[in-house]
Amino acid sequence: MPEETKKLGVGALVALVVSSSIGSGIFGIPTDMAGTSSPGAAIIAWIVVGIGALLLCLCFTNLIAKRPDLSGVFSYAEAGFGPFGGFISGWGYWLSAWLGNVAFATMMMSAVAYFIPAFGTGQNILSIIVASIVLWFMCFIVNKGVESAAILNVIVTVCKLVPLFLFNVIAIIAFKAEIFTADFWGTVSGNFELTDVFGQIQNSMMVLMWVFVGIEGAAMLADRAKTKAVAAKSTVIGLVLLLVVYTLTSLLPYGLMTRDEIVKLGQPSLGYILADVVGPWGAALINLGLIISIFGCWLSWTMLPAETTLLMAKRNLLPKKFGEVNDANSPTYSLVFMTILTQIFIFTLLFTEKAYNFAYSLCTAAIFVSWIMVAMYQVKYSYQHRKEKGESLQLVIGLITCIFYGWAIYASGFEYFLLCFTAYILGIFFYYQARKEINEEKVFNFKELFTAGVINFGACIAIYLLVTGKIVV
Questions:
Q1: Which of 141, 170, 205, 324 is the most exposed place for a label (fewest CB within 10 A)?
Q2: Quick check: 452 and 432 in contact, CB under 8 A?
Q3: What distances in angstroms separate CA 385 from CA 86, 90, 106, 393, 403, one per listed residue?
Q4: How many Cα atoms within 13 Å fall on the side-chain side of residue 290?
Q5: By C-alpha distance, which of 254, 287, 86, 255 is closest to 175?
Q6: Which of 377, 382, 369, 372 is nearest to 404 (CA)?
Q7: Average pLDDT, stretch 252-268?
Q8: In this structure, is the dihedral angle defined by the CA atoms of residues 41, 243, 284 and 136, taken in order, positive or negative?
Q9: Distances (CA, A) of 21 to 139, 164, 230, 349
Q10: Residue 385: helix, strand or coil by DSSP?
Q11: d(CA 96, CA 112)
């Protein structure tokens, strides 16, 4: 088959962005949001996060257009800060992807438990066995070819959007303004109080940022797109669709139940809300939609980390073994390596009380590394070309994006950010091995050695916090 026919168009890439982001989080977002924010604070939080996500997308679209020679999120960090910078970004992205799959495994089994009670809370032996079968099935599909998996992803995306669309239509019809406005600001006085409302917004950051993980999917597969412009366009279209779906799905429940009632619901809370409005079939529909949704997101997040390690190996940021591909142009070694690590982590679900929350918190913290380094390169590139038309605006966009995601790291829980550093220790070993494969005499310069030292120091702090119970898993 000619190479051109395999290239991905706008439809496939938009589906990848949407499917990569809409996974398990949206089906539980009513309870997660109600637990941290009142309706008024939630609206402001969505505006803040929406602007932050838009700024990141603008950075991606600008860099894809200005540097079409670069491939993969990590490539921007490498171009701006050298090979070790590229490794740090790529490893963070890779970590985020497969840790997200662990979160999917837990939530998927919880949804299956609605139909088959033997699965319990999604963390018993039966759940682990079935989740493991799905995990290796994903590995098998992607190993048959990334482009074929992307086409399947389009079908899955359409299927999982149907129950969400139905929920929003029913919720709009059943919406009661008096319930929505009863405790609009969630303050003691009932009025807008800056400190209290800002605290609610800050507490909701991890939940909101988690549902946007995957927005960079089109940029990650830009090499497999028909053109770089197609990848940029797909990123923006995907963001707009996500914002519409997310804001409606998270805000409408405030007009169906009181905040206290929503907080007490089980997961996936969307199903319980719909069941309260239309009856038991609503919960069945949402749980079925959740299973399909996670399947699609899990598929996307099996493609993306495999593509990351493949590209990193080509850039000599990981050993050459990670860059070996089969006849279907899929990196088998990278896929199997990632699947084994995910399998090990899935086994730990037997000993973790809040596996889903812990996994998605780690996933989100890891992706922050890649996102903020994209923004940092945007700043560097725009400053270097500041005399050219439009670059002053791009510089401002990059600076604001850096500030936003720096704050997001703090607001979402700095301890999870530190915990990700522990996984960098293995990664640094692989990076060192890769640089030696190309006979590089001095692998680290002074700045890189200092950065590696900071990472290791942060990992030690994280381990201490974990042992002393300051970080609960």
A1: 324
A2: no
A3: 21, 25, 47, 11, 21
A4: 31
A5: 255
A6: 372
A7: 89
A8: negative
A9: 19, 14, 19, 23
A10: coil
A11: 24
Average pLDDT, the chain: 85
CB 352, CB 138: distance < 8 Å:
no
For the segment 9-64, what is each residue's pLDDT rounded down to a tens digit?
A: 777 777 777 766 776 678 888 888 998 899 999 999 999 998 998 899 889 888 88
Q: Please spell the DSSP secondary structure of 35-77, one letter per residue.
A: TT--HHHHHHHHHHHHHHHHHHHHHHHHHHHH-TT--SHHHHH
3-state secondary structure at position 433: helix
Q: How far apart are CA 409 and CA 188, in angstroms?
A: 29
186 DSSP 8-state letter: -
Residue among 241, 238, 300 at smallest CA distance from 57: 238
With beta carbons less than 8 A apart as the criterion, state whether 15 and 216 touch: no
Asked whether the beta carbons of 402 and 379 are under 8 A apart, the reply is yes
Return the pLDDT at 429: 93
The reported pLDDT for the residue numbered 241 is: 86
Higher pLDDT, 10 or 473: 10
Q: Which two tokens stand for residue 243?
A: 């914002």
Q: Is the peptide bond before 268 cis (omega within 30 degrees of 0)?
A: yes
Q: For residue 220, name the pLDDT band (cuts at 50, 70, 90).
A: low
Residues paired with 225 in a beta bridge: 8
Lowest mean pLDDT among 36-40, 224-228, 267-271, 429-433: 224-228
The span from the CA of 301 to the CA of 100, in Å, is: 8
Distance CA 292, CA 396 (A): 40
3-state secondary structure 94-145: HHHHHHHHHHHHHHHHHHHHHHCHHHCCCCCHHHHHHHHHHHHHHHHHHHCC
Reported as a pLDDT band with limits 50, 70 and 90, residue 221 is low
Report pLDDT for 1.
36
Q: How far apart are CA 168 and CA 371, in angstroms?
A: 30
pLDDT higher than 80, residue 354 = no
Instruction: For Cα atoms 348, 351, 353, give the angle at the middle one, nearest 5 degrees.
Output: 115
Domains and CATH numbers, the chain: 3-467 (1.20.1740.10)
Give which of 232, 205, 245 is closest to 413, Cα–Cα: 205
Summarize pLDDT for 310-322 with one digit per residue, the tens: 889 999 999 999 9
| Residue 351: per-residue pLDDT | 67
Whether 419 has a pLDDT exceeding 90, the answer reads: no
DSSP 302: H
Write the single-letter amino acid at 77: A
* C-alpha–C-alpha distance, residues 1 and 279, integer Å: 50
